[in-house]
Design brief:
The chain has five helices and no strands. It has helices at residues 2-21, 27-40, 69-72, 76-84, 106-116.
Length: 119
């Protein structure tokens, strides 16, 4: 009777391993993917026109590079606020207030924030 018990244990161990490797993309990762698309869309975020970041195609240099964002913005809400309305922190900024001017929706800003936080 020991062999069937070992076989059941081995089968359940394999199922557990497969279950952990075949997990669908999390909502946060999907949001980050959508955020990248929005950020690179010329009619939406167009972040690449001013910011350099890893993988950017012909980035601008008018704004700080998007690197080490978790270290620069440990509070994700502050990063979101910066994207939504940078004029609150710096009234003289050249960065558009994407939320205040309705360029991006709140959902779009959330997605871009998720993506920028991965950089």
């Amino acid at each position: 009777m020991r062999k069937p018990a070992k076989l059941i244990f081995a089968a359940s161990a394999v199922a557990m391993l497969l279950g952990t490797t075949m997990v669908p993309m999390t909502a946060q990762a999907a949001s980050a993917e959508e955020g990248k698309k929005l950020a690179e869309d010329r009619k939406k975020g167009n972040c690449v026109s001013c910011h350099a970041y890893e993988g950017a195609n012909m980035p601008g240099n008018a704004a700080p590079p998007l690197v080490a964002m978790k270290a620069r913005y440990p509070d994700k809400k502050k990063l979101r606020d910066q994207i939504a309305d940078p004029t609150k922190a710096n009234p003289n900024t050249i960065m558009p207030p994407f939320g205040k001017h309705g360029i991006l929706s709140g959902k779009d800003i959330d997605a871009i924030t998720e993506w920028v936080y991965t950089l």
